[in-house]
Design a protein that fits this description.
single chain; 383 residues; alpha/beta; Rossmann fold; 2 domains; seven-stranded parallel β-sheet; six-stranded parallel β-sheet
Length: 383
């Protein structure tokens, strides 16, 4: 017997429509698969006003709180109000995204058929209060989803989730991404994301050593005292690097990205969440058939090695980046470049797309339902 659900509530940890697209993706995919209604309860981040989303089967409801939802008092109020909405709606499924709404799972009186924890964020051995809370609610969680294998391995014991079955769903792009033929592109390099001197090595781009690289930067600047002077320094030096402001993720971002020859993706491995990164921008590049130049984060290394669909840096230093860019430039306008874009990237894009990743979640749900119907089978599989 296949799983049957009529209603779903997703507890988001962010105001949707800005980042973390997986909150909407999992909600829409669940609604489509089970022909169910889906309600996302989003926190009221005042710096992120409500935005429309492209998810026809999903409704978003903002939970207004007296204080910022990331303050302890605001988080507590969010969880109490979310628990009330769950008790009112009595959904068949509750999806808890990251940590913010965990208190709602503790306080709700309704018992859904399925509670899913979607581990989009990582404790990095911090968040002691959240870890204690998860150990109180772990027996109410039926299934875990993680975007990366190492994150699941590290987080499940910390959160008291050792017994729960787990689906690994990479952060694949949900959109039908645009792409261009290899000889229709602009010949330039792309970087889209946070520009911070320590967290994303933005000094590599602004320091002068890469001034001869035709590179366009898009993203928010952070960690710099004088952003205007920083941007002006590029033109003052007649650098080939340009800064073009922030472009929000979505169809417009992908339309822009697909025009480029390569996309640079890297985070400083300063903690577990950045070392075991599963960057959206990495999967966006693959979806648009733009070869990524990527630091050796384990998941990125695994995918680049398997599909031969990009350039893997040897490490995180500026010399490692310069060497990777040189290797990329040597492949431009060659048969290797054409094969990467016409054959390898399309295969990777199909395998790593969000619809393909969601199939792993759906399979885990179906197995869980069957094991409940036949407990002996579930015990045998667990053994």
């Amino acid at each position: 017997m296949s799983a049957a659900f009529n209603s779903i509530i997703t507890l988001s940890d962010v105001s949707v429509g800005y980042g973390t697209p997986q909150v909407v993706s999992i909600s829409q995919s669940m609604a489509e698969r089970y022909d169910a209604s889906c309600l996302i309860l989003e926190p009221d981040q005042p710096e992120r006003p409500p935005r429309p989303i492209d998810a026809p089967d999903v409704t978003v409801e903002r939970v207004y709180t007296s204080n910022h939802p990331y303050a302890l008092s605001g988080q507590t109020e969010f969880c109490l109000l979310a628990a009330e909405r769950i008790d009112q709606e009595k959904p068949d499924v509750v999806i808890l995204c990251s940590f913010l709404g965990a208190g709602a799972i503790l306080k709700m009186k309704h018992k859904p058929s399925l509670v899913i924890y979607y581990g989009l964020e990582h404790t990095d051995e911090r968040f002691q209060r959240e870890r204690r809370l998860f150990n109180l609610i772990s027996d109410r969680i039926d299934l875990c989803i993680f975007p990366e294998e190492n994150r699941a391995r590290l987080e499940k014991p910390r959160l008291g989730l050792k017994r729960q079955p787990t689906a690994i769903a990479y952060n694949g792009a949900a959109e039908s991404a645009p792409h261009l033929d290899w000889d229709e592109r602009n010949g330039r390099f792309f970087y889209g994301g946070l520009l911070h001197p320590q967290r994303t090595y933005a000094d590599y781009f602004f320091g002068g050593e890469l001034d001869d690289v035709p590179l366009d930067l898009y993203g928010l600047l952070d960690g710099y005292d004088d952003e205007t002077a920083l941007i002006s320094s590029l033109s003052d030096r007649r650098s080939e690097i340009t800064y073009n402001g922030y472009v929000p993720r979505g169809p417009g971002f992908l339309d822009l990205l697909c025009e480029y020859d390569f996309s640079i993706v890297m985070w400083a491995p300063i903690d577990e969440s950045t070392r075991f990164a599963a960057p959206n921008k990495f999967f966006d590049a693959i979806a648009t058939h733009v070869p990524p130049i990527v630091a050796p984060h384990p998941l990125c290394r695994q995918i680049i090695t398997r599909y031969r669909c990009g350039i893997l840096m040897d490490g995180w230093s500026i010399d490692d980046l310069k060497n990777a860019i040189a290797r990329a430039q040597n492949t431009q306008n060659t048969g290797e470049f054409a094969e990467m874009i016409e054959e390898r990237l399309p295969q990777a894009a199909r395998d790593l797309s969000w619809p393909a990743q969601f199939e792993k979640v759906a399979a885990a749900i179906e197995k869980l339902v069957k094991d409940r119907e036949n407990p002996k089978r579930g015990q045998r599989d667990a053994a």
